Amino acid sequence: MVKITGCLWKMEKHWSMLTN
């Protein structure tokens, strides 16, 4: 579960950089 949360957080951060 922690792994999935970390993955989602990483993905969100990645998308934030792309859209920024």
Q: Any overview of this molecule?
A:
The protein contains one helix and no strands. Helices cover 90% and strands 0% of the residues. By secondary structure, the protein is mainly alpha-helical.
Question: Helical proportion?
Answer: over 70%
Number of strands: 0
Oligomer: single chain
Q: Sheet with the most strands? A: none
Task: Please report which band the strand proportion falls in: under 5%, 5-15%, 15-25%, 25-35%, 35-45% or over 45%.
Answer: under 5%
Between the first and last Cα atoms, what is the distance in angstroms? 28 Å
Q: Order of SSEs, N→C?
A: H
Q: Nutshell version of this structure?
A:
By secondary structure, this protein is mainly alpha-helical.
Keywords:
20 residues, mainly alpha, 1 helix, 90% helix, rod-shaped
Give me the secondary-structure topology.
Blueprint: H1 2-19
